[in-house]
Design goal:
mainly alpha; Rossmann fold; Tyrosyl-Transfer RNA Synthetase; three-stranded parallel sheet; two-stranded parallel sheet; 5 strands; elongated
Length: 365
């Protein structure tokens, strides 16, 4: 029996530069998984076609950000020799598989998807104003995953409903047409603080559209400025006041980024992050001291990323060439899968010699 390959697929919509929420939610993990050597194939793609579903009148926004996201991928440590980087729109087979998948999902099932509901609200769509392409993007996402037979999808917990729908579609396809596609599993961040990093305002998930992001490409000065204005504990008016950790964005970020080794090295008073938390909750520790630690931790994380990005920015044509080669590899894989899909669905008319001969015999009688 042939062993199933371990394959990772994940991606991002190129509607802006990637931020640290992307980094701790998935991107950092992708690099770790790439470097682990535990996976046979890793595909990371830019979902530009999906981004156009709600940017159809502003294609230049997507066009410009394809290179920005590619630079962020490379700067974060994704290696095109070990990870296939590609662009969704350059793989036309994805449209074909999405079309077949549409027959396997009801409108009511799409309406029940909580991720779809949230995204619709965020973009202000209502009733009949929802673009069909946007409404059906769980189907498109299922096709992205199934096309490359991904066994593992690193993502935040907000994507679990999407993965469940992808599993349902693959399961139904295999039930009808035979065992052809692979059911994927989600790989969540191990650190609970990374599941859904809040924005700097503390009020929502970090989002480009809400303007509450720290970008991977931000300069040290920009990061420091944003950290200084971050939401903390509104009841912590004086240094002597006891502070609260729940909903305190600074400590959420420290949980996501800081190690005890960093805390001990970058401060003179604490050996662990928990010691700092204990001091804050009993009173006597000011917010600015906590923010200064966060600035230092973020600088240690982001400075190598900034440096790698600066190197890749020196040769943008080479970055486009990386994407072009990745698209070639991805399309070859997609063509293999679609050959299997068409064979399973019995629509491979011209490749099925048995069918042609059978029909020839039938009409010769």
């Amino acid at each position: 029996m042939e062993l199933k390959q371990k394959i990772i697929l994940t991606g991002d919509r190129p509607t802006g530069k990637l931020h640290i929420g992307h980094y701790v939610g998935s991107l950092r993990r992708r690099v770790e998984l790439q470097n682990s050597g535990l996976y046979d194939k890793i595909f990371v793609f830019e979902a530009d076609a999906q981004a156009l579903t709600d940017n159809i009148e502003n294609p230049e926004k997507v066009r410009q950000n394809v290179i920005e996201v590619a630079l962020d991928y490379l700067a974060a440590g994704l290696d095109p020799e070990r990870t296939t980087l590609f662009i969704q729109s350059q793989i036309p087979e994805l449209c074909e598989l999405s079309f077949y998948f549409m027959d396997m999902v009801s409108v009511s099932r799409l309406q029940r998807n909580p991720t779809v509901k949230t995204e619709i609200q965020m973009r202000g769509f209502s009733g009949e104003s929802i673009p069909v392409g946007f409404f059906t993007y769980p189907i498109s996402q299922a096709a992205d995953i199934a096309m490359f037979k991904a066994t593992t999808v690193p993502a935040g917990d907000d994507q679990e409903p999407m993965l469940e729908q992808a599993r349902e579609i693959v399961r139904r396809f295999n039930y009808i047409y035979g065992d052809t596609l692979v059911e994927p599993n989600i790989l969540l961040p191990e650190n609970a603080a990374c599941l859904r990093l809040p924005g700097t305002d503390g009020k929502a998930k970090m989002s480009k559209s809400l303007g509450n992001c720290i970008y991977l490409s931000d300069s040290a000065d920009e990061v420091n400025r944003k950290v200084k204005t971050m939401y903390t504990d509104p009841t912590h008016l004086q240094v002597s006041d006891p502070g609260h950790l729940e909903g305190n964005t600074v400590f959420t970020y420290l949980d996501a980024f800081a190690t005890d080794e960093q805390v001990a090295r970058l401060t003179t008073d604490y050996a662990t992050l928990q010691e700092m938390k204990d001091h804050y909750t009993r009173g006597g520790l000011g917010d600015m001291k906590c923010k200064k630690l966060l600035m230092a931790v973020l600088d240690e994380t982001l400075e190598p990323i900034r440096q790698r990005r600066a190197e890749y920015e020196k040769d943008i044509p080479a970055v486009y060439e990386i994407l072009r080669k990745g698209c070639e590899v991805a399309r070859a894989a997609a063509c293999e899968t679609m050959d299997e899909v068409r064979r399973a669905m019995k629509i491979n008319y011209f490749d099925d010699r048995a069918l042609i001969e059978e029909q020839a015999r039938r009409f010769q009688k």
